[in-house]
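#struct-queue
[09:14] JT: dropping the first one here, sequence first, then the structure tokens:
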Amino acid sequence: MQTTRPKPSTAHEPRGELSCRALAMPADTNPMGDIFGGWIMSAMDAAAFMTATKRAEGRVVTVAVSNITFMRPVKVGDAVCCYTEVTRVGSTSITLAVEVWVQRQGHGDRIKVTDAEFTFVAVNDNGRPRQIVDGSGASNGTAAGP
């Protein structure tokens, strides 16, 4: 198992690749009128799942979410963009950095609103952990690639 040192995002540049984009809608608000944090977390999990599934070349399950930070509220009408970057690949697990950025009312500057770390485990058809195969077809721990 190896770890890569991910580049930190700057104030104006998301880290990783765009994995999911959605429009924040009124049905997803909390009692204060902002988008509910659980909706944001669900979008992050879906985005990370898609990236982890591709990297693992098969089924994965979420096993941990850590260091989630809600920095700014998301408003109705915001374009919500989830960016993912694989930061670690173990023999059966994948860890990703996930950032959420918005464009207020779908335009203007991007604003970072949330970030977290998601960990997935690759599983077989019986739901048991399985080895993750690297790009060459070999299994075992590998470093995350660019």
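[09:21] JT: and here's the second one, same format:
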Amino acid sequence: MPFIFDTNSLRVIGNYYPDQFPSCWERFEAAVNSKEVLSVREVYNEIVQQIKDEWYLEWLKNHKEMFLTPGAEEGKVVAEIFQDARLKMRSLF
């Protein structure tokens, strides 16, 4: 079963520079390449807007295949989740 990374997780790992933490990046890249670490297209779109480090932007672009496009089945699950009244936005006023 793969690990699914959100934007925050990918931002955090970007703080560990490859030249200072080479074994971390070797293992992370191996996990990405073997599809043990995945994410979704929306995360990619968010993170490339937030990241300023050129090396990390380049890494993300070179590993864009890890960012999957959700299918119809996932869309149905998300729609069901948002039907839960506890998750709907409430006015503070």
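[09:30] RK: nice, looked through the second one.
[09:31] RK: The CA atoms of residues 73 and 79 lie 10 Å apart.
[09:31] JT: good to know. The chain has one domain: 3-87.
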